[in-house]
Every structure is written in structure tokens, then in C-alpha cells.
DNA sequence: AGCACA
């Protein structure tokens, strides 16, 4: 099973800058996945945030979970990557301490062109009951209606950034200045206050999602996020309040990242909790995967291995 | 100890 599975992230062109292939292959993932929005975010906000970006094609906000999830499609993997980096750690809303986290999506956002019911495509994550796109963009790229003269200040938008009008070079804006320097993470990395020996009986087989237990009801999500969000491979986390205790799920990009954190942070003290150290276990069900029992006897034993999409 | 989301 240790198969060298197909890479989740298609191999991008190296950041050499100018040797980029003209308009990436169509099978490259050129969609980003953005988390960290405040719960009251509007899809329009995502669109207005991204439509300035070179190569932006469409976006969609998914409100299914506790946290809104944004997806945005770009004209190429390079453009998507650049936008992803630009959004990384962007403070979206100071009031709610919302800091964005962006990753490459696993699949491309499916943009419904018309209302034609070709519903066989599978957009990232859940099948869209709620497929929304940028709306009406009949031109190859979105041309702003002219309402906005200047991008919002204090943001990632480089000065040289102008929505291209006629000739469109998706790489014009690439090789951008180090944008991360502008957007400071508000989720400061938090080092655990200390460690407590934690015996972990009854763990599950390793997978890319950790289950965090032994957390008191007072446990602060911010502290957890501070501890975990900086860990290599961190994808997302979800906190669940269960009466007088709290549990938390953390998804990582791959099983190895989860294993590392499982070992390194075992028993780490969570200050806001009143129970000392946290217990880290592998989740019974990885993020985004349903347990399949009777449904699929063929795939009985690899909890950590997502059935990577049949990319047709 | 407590395992959601799809």
C-alpha cells in the first residue's frame, strides 16, 4: 500500500518564472481551496476579492460545514498558485480574527456554463447542490464593470496589478513580489505550554486526520488553531463541543504529516483546557471520507488512503 | 471518554 500514489498536487512548473508552459494543461489542477472566512462571509466577497487576480475565472463559496469554504478557478495552475500564495494568511476580517488559508484544491472547480444539466462532473468536495460561479462571464476573463478603481488598500494586491483588458497574459502578474510579507498571520503559532505523559491506548490506524481528545470545555479554538495550523501539512481543523468536553479534528495533507504531529504533540498542554495534555489519536474517519462498510467491500482496509479521484 | 464533515 505504500504505493507511490499519483501526486495530489500536479507537478507545477518550477518557480523559474519565465519558462512556464503556455497555458497549463487542462488536467492540471488550477483551482484553489480557501478556508478561514468568517461565518457570515458572502460568496460575493470571495468573487470581489479574487476577480482582480490575473487568470481568475470563477469562484464559489460553499457553506456546508461549520466554516465556509471557498473555491476559485484560474486559467492556469501557475495563476492559481500565485493567488493561493497571495491569499495565504491574509487577514480577511480583523474583527473576527479571520485569517485565510489557501491550498490547491484536489480537483478543478466545475463551472457550469449554462443551466444545462450536465451534472456528472464532480466539483471539489461535495457535489454541488450549491454550484455557484462568478456569475455571468461571457468573455474569456472577467472584466470588472469599472466600479472599482482601486483595489482595497492594505491587501495583497500588487501595484502593478491591473485587470488586463485586451491581450491577456496570464503570467503577466506572476513573479510577483513576496506577497506573504504583506499579510501577517494573525493566528500566531503557539507552542504548547509543555507536555504531559500521555498513554494512548486504543488508537486507530494512521490516517491523515487526527482526533484530539482530553480537552476541557473551556478549550479555546484559537489556541488549538495556534498550535496546529502551523504544523507541516496542516489543512483544516474542526472543533466540536460535547457538553463538558471538547474534541477536535485536524486534517493534514498526507498521512505522514499527521503521524508526525501525532507523535510530536502527544500530551501537549493546552493552556485553555483544564485537563492538562491533549490526547492525539488517528481519526476513525478521515476528513471528507465517509465510512464505507457494506457499500464497498473492495476497499476494506486503507483508512488513510483516499481514493484519489478518477481523473478522467 | 468523547469521532464530525461528506
TrEMBL record:
Pfam families: RRM_1 (PF00076)
Keyword presence, Nucleus: yes
A cellular-component GO term for this protein: nucleus
Any one GO molecular function term: RNA binding
Residue numbers spanned by region Disordered: 1-23, 289-312
SMART domains with a match to the protein in the record: RRM
Subcellular location: Nucleus
PANTHER family: U1 SMALL NUCLEAR RIBONUCLEOPROTEIN A/U2 SMALL NUCLEAR RIBONUCLEOPROTEIN B
Protein name per UniProt: RRM domain-containing protein
Organism: Adiantum capillus-veneris
